[in-house]
Amino acid sequence: MPHPFIVPAIPVPANPALRLALQQAIDNKTKPRGALGRLEFLALQLGLIQDSPTPRLVAPQIRVFAADHGLNRHGVSAYPSVVTAQMVHNFLQGGAAINVFARQHQLALKVVDAGVDADFAPHPDLLDCKIRRGTRDTLHQAAMTDAECHAALRRGMELARDMAGNLLIVGEMGIGNTSAASLLLARLGDLPIEDCTGRGTGLDDPALARKRRVLAQVLARHAGAQSPFDALAALGGLEIAMMAGALIMAASQRRVLLMDGFIAGVALLVAERLAPGVRRFAVFAHRSAEPGHGHLLRLLEAEPLLALDLRLGEGSGAALAYPLLQSACAFLDEMASFADAGIGARG
Q1: What gap in Å lies between CA 186 and CA 346, rounded to an integer?
Q2: How far apart are CA 141 and CA 135, in angstroms?
Q3: What residues does each domain of the chain span?
Q4: Are 60 and 71 in contact (CB under 8 A)?
Q5: Which residue in the list 40, 301, 314, 334 is annotated as catalytic?
Q6: From CA 8, how far away is CA 13, in angstroms rounded?
Q7: Fewer Cβ close by (within 10 Å): the C or N end of the chain?
Q8: In sequence order, what DSSP letters do the residues of 203-255 get, joined into one string?
Q9: Catalytic annotation on 148?
Q10: E strands, the chain, where?
């Protein structure tokens, strides 16, 4: 069915005159052409995203979206669903990896309750956007009703619309959400579920085989859910849907989307299919150890900045890559040109 919510227009970051000016500025720095490698392309990309010859990173934001998954009752994760709520408390107490990296790099962090199967006391760093207490068991029914899926997408869009800054990192927490991401990748990418499914939080070989069997059954159960919206509602997660909405809105506002790993990347795939052009605003931080991420990167024609065998989620890989974006902006702004330094350029 067509999605009735209004998708904002996605601009095209392709100003030919600006591209030429940025490339000339990069080439005229006091270095051999191309000597800063992919950092040079990153500077060009940031300038085009911001439509500016002097890109700046202002008030960067992290939003960690949390939700539970009904499918987890079938043993698709090494952890019980109660850990989702426990990790939300850990985020709010400042004790998770993403908290450490956010403090280190001065990234503003908020946690979004998209659909955790628990209630939380008010907290200044918690945004209560709960649609329902976890998705339904997708082995037997759709994860979300159409209305719930629309609500999650719209809420994500509203969060991004009202956010400070010009850079967004979306992270996630939800026991069982690698299964939802694998299902969406298999359906939207027309890939075998075996190629999209990994160990998640650390499944052993028998548990991984069981996870793959369960996910194959889920895909068969929802064989008719083929469109991006229908697949999201049938197979996805509340946090994935809300991230997709946030990414759509952020791209429409020309924000930099600094993408984390597998699950955040699947949210971007959903966003791109719902609002073509979103991925042009994405900088891909790292290549996850989750096997489906390689297939996802190929689908999105993406080359990540780092390869550290990360598989944590939370936005942690994106936070680690953030200093590279700072360096790209800094060399473009501060590095002397050959003319500035009185050095003869290459003939």
Answers
A1: 50
A2: 10
A3: 16-56+330-341, 61-324
A4: no
A5: 314
A6: 15
A7: C
A8: --HHHHHHHHHHHHHHHHHTTT--SHHHHHHHH--HHHHHHHHHHHHHHHTT-
A9: no
A10: 61-67, 108-115, 126-128, 167-173, 256-259, 282-284
pLDDT tens for 87-134 read 999 999 999 999 999 999 999 999 999 999 999 999 999 999 999 999
Contact (CB, 8 A) for 157 and 246: yes
User: What separation, in Å, do the N-terminal and C-terminal C-alpha atoms of the chain show?
Assistant: 60
Positive/negative CA dihedral, 226, 185, 61, 253: negative
Pairwise CA distance, residues 6 & 47, whole Å: 28
For residues 205 and 199, give the distance between their C-alpha atoms in angstroms, rounded to a whole number. Answer: 8
Is 16-56+330-341 assigned to CATH 1.10.1610.10?
Answer: yes
What CATH topology corresponds to 61-324? Rossmann fold (3.40.50)
Instruction: Please give the Cα distance from 296 to 323 (Å, whole number).
Output: 24
Secondary-structure percent of the chain, ordered helix, strand, coil, rounded to 5: 50, 10, 40
Q: Cα–Cα distance between 168 and 246 in angstroms, integer?
A: 9
Angle of the 177-189 helix axis to the 291-299 helix axis, nearest 10: 40
CA atoms within 13 A on the CB side of 282: 32
pLDDT one-digit tens code per residue, 14-40: 999 999 999 999 999 999 999 999 999
CA 295 from centroid of its chain's CA atoms: 15
Per-residue model confidence (pLDDT) at position 282: 98
- This prediction has a pTM of 0.96
